[in-house]
Write a structure and sequence with these properties.
The chain has 17 helices and 12 strands. The protein is α/β, with parallel strands linked by helices. The protein has a 6-stranded parallel β-sheet, with helices on both faces. Strands 4-3-10 form a 3-stranded mixed β-sheet. The chain has a 3-stranded mixed β-sheet with strand order 9-11-12, with helices on one face. Helix 1 links the parallel strand 1 and strand 2 (about 30-35).
């Protein structure tokens, strides 16, 4: 009996070391789709690759029986493969995600006369990725294909979490990943295929916000404060006592909010915070504060990891969060000359003044307590 086919868009480190690996472990024939000629050729030449866990033992696993297609040069073969697949997954980044809609729509057209179910999951570091992909695909479909998609194609949203360090190996396909991983998928009306390591839940929101307001918030606080102290790596930064205290303080604030919103038990959430901080301390994962802190404008946006929980904290407790305000101020001081958004942010502060920059980039209004606390923190930070 031939294996069920899974098409995974994005043959990068996350694709190979996380989603693709779990799909192979679950018995799927995995076909990677990517625009990188070298990666595609390597996968087709070797048909397998190694995943190494970033732990003391350096546990190593072979991922066997994979192949790859070039997304643009082999579109016809890709569309045909989508036509036969049981599941489609992505790990391409939020900006690239909508660009997959054309090939996916053509693949859905291929199967429009059948009644074969298809699951499409965007495994991106964003909220509602699968829904965004669905919105991009549906207008491209014929009447028949749209009818088929409405009955047989599901787009469950997902939250994914695994740190993949910067790395280079002699074998270009080898990938090192941290031992921890989390793939949580929201169950729609239809039955989802079973995949090893995938957790299905009825409501994804608590898991998305828990990850965004703990992992992403904590990582970014570590990066911005580390940068200010001229510490180059996340590992070294989190071992600095003052930075560790600031990170823990920010996560205590987001934790209080999450516990109130979603009835998380205090003990369980404290354990989750401890686990996240230990992940940042992992000596086998080297990450630079400049990489983790990049794109500060996006990270201080009103719906992202700092401002969203800070505002919700004010509403929930009628109190201004001190550590999150401190973190936003540190992000406003991030002036890495290699980062385009950092340069843009620093230019805006110089040109328009701090008050205007806070309002423009965070959406927080002047004369609120939160605005004032961010401003005070900015001037007190050294």
């Amino acid at each position: 009996m031939s294996k069920k086919i899974a098409v995974h868009f994005g043959a990068g480190n996350i694709g190979r070391g996380f989603i693709g690996w779990l799909l192979v472990q679950s018995g799927y024939q995995v076909v990677f789709a990517d625009v990188n000629d070298e990666l595609v050729n390597e996968i087709n030449d070797k048909g397998r690759y190694q995943v190494i866990l970033a732990n003391e033992e350096q546990d190593t696993f072979w991922v066997e029986g994979v192949r790859a297609l070039h997304s643009s040069k082999e579109e016809e073969a890709l569309v045909a493969t989508i036509g036969q697949a049981s599941i489609i997954t992505t790990a391409v980044g939020p900006t690239v995600l909508p660009l997959l809609a054309g090939a996916l729509a053509k693949g859905i057209e291929e199967r429009a006369s059948s009644n074969q179910p298809l699951t499409i999951i965007a495994c991106e570091n964003m909220i509602g990725g699968s829904s965004i992909l669905q919105e991009a695909i549906m207008p491209l479909l014929s009447v028949q294909a749209k009818s088929y998609a409405e009955s047989y194609v599901t787009f469950p949203n997902a939250a994914v979490d695994r740190i993949v360090p910067n790395q280079s190996h002699q074998d270009k396909l080898t990938v090192m990943v941290e031992p921890f991983c989390e793939w949580v998928v929201e169950t729609p009306g239809a039955q989802l295929p079973h995949i090893e390591g995938m957790l299905t839940v009825s409501d994804l929101t608590p898991y998305i916000e828990r990850k965004l307001f703990t992992v992403n918030t904590g990582h970014a606080v570590t990066a911005y404060l580390g940068y200010m102290k001229e510490i180059s790596s996340i590992e070294d930064a989190i071992h600095n006592e003052r930075i560790l205290f600031a990170v823990r303080s920010a996560l205590e604030e987001t934790g209080a909010l999450l516990e109130k919103k979603f009835d998380f038990s205090h003990e369980e959430h404290q354990s989750y915070i401890d686990k996240i901080i230990e992940r940042f301390k992992n000596p086998f994962i080297s990450d630079y504060v400049t990489r983790v802190g990049r794109s500060p404008i996006r990270k201080i946006g009103e719906n992202d990891r700092f401002v969203q929980p800070a505002r919700q904290f004010v509403e929930a407790f009628n109190e201004t969060p001190k550590a999150l305000s401190h973190a936003i101020a540190a992000a406003l001081k991030f002036n890495d000359p290699e980062d385009e958004e950092a340069r843009q942010l620093q230019a805006a502060i110089l040109r328009d003044g701090l008050d205007q920059a806070i309002e423009d980039y965070t959406g927080i209004k002047p004369y609120t307590m939160l605005f004032q606390r961010i401003k005070d923190s900015y001037y007190s930070l050294v």
